[in-house]
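Collaborator request, handled under Task 6.
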Amino acid sequence: MRIGGKRMITKNYIKMCERAEEIQVKWKPRIGDTIKHRLTKSTQLITLYDIETYSDDFYIEEKYTWLPTQEQLQEMLKNSWADPSILLAEFYGWQVFIYPKFKDESITERWLAFVMKEKYNKVWTGEDWINEENTTT
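Structure tokens returned to the collaborator:
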């Protein structure tokens, strides 16, 4: 998927989602979700259109990776900020002033990093999510 020439679902985003165990365990499949089959080497993406088709598969551990959309990532933070405008302002401030490392990443990668920081106090190392206390930056 592309918006403005930049891919929304990148290989790095898939890797970030695969390692975001806190988000994966809370996933409740619904129509429209984008998923990646974990057991194949290809990065073929599937959009759920019929939950019954996949329902038996969801009980097989680690068979699919959920790739949340920006909207789904923002929904994860809805209890933290009553006003969406404040959420956007916090996101902007975080990415520009606190964690500028993500300025060249896709917007979806930035939202995932923001969610992981706000909800789980974790930062992305390029390989995995670690507790922020364990970083020197």
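The cover message to the collaborator said: "The mean pLDDT is 79. Residues 2-132 form one domain. Please let us know whether this matches your experimental observations."
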